[in-house]
Design brief:
The protein is mainly beta and about 120 residues long. The chain has strands spanning about 5, 10-15, 20-25, 35-40, 45-50, 60, 70-75, 80-85, 90-100, 115, 120-124. A hairpin with a 6-residue loop joins strand 5 (about 45-50) and strand 6. The N and C termini lie far apart (about 40 Å).
Length: about 120
């Protein structure tokens, strides 16, 4: 069973940066896809990026491509979402979630384990 805990959210002005963390446990001997999602009030949860914990490139949604970067430190069982050039429309609750391969920036229904989320607010 994979447990996930997000951190690093906060408030930032447009054009600024934030780095979110997703600390994972319970998957030492398995390989998973870890996806990043976001949801703002009144909107559906949106998949924005995914990475395979066994290595390889991350996959990004068009809405964040070129601005957000996913990385991982397997020595710490932690994944990161570096968010640059933030816009007010990036304001949302951000979640990480686990799925089995193959990895895809898909809808949230495929993912079986979720963190509690961390809030990001971008002001204009």
């Amino acid at each position: 069973q994979v447990q996930l805990v997000e951190s690093g959210g906060g408030s930032v002005q447009a054009g600024g940066s934030l780095r979110l963390s997703c600390a994972a446990s319970g998957y030492t001997y398995r390989r998973y896809c870890i996806g990043w999602f976001r949801q703002s009030p009144g909107k559906e949860r949106e998949g924005i990026a995914v990475i395979y914990t066994g290595g390889g490139r991350a996959i990004y949604a068009d809405s964040v491509k070129g601005r957000f970067t996913v990385s991982q430190d397997n020595t710490k069982n932690t994944l990161y979402l570096q968010m640059n050039s933030l816009k007010p429309e990036d304001s949302a609750m951000y979640y990480c979630a686990a799925d089995y391969p193959p990895c895809a920036v898909a809808g949230p229904d495929k993912y079986f384990s979720w963190g509690q989320g961390t809030q990001v607010t971008v002001s204009s």
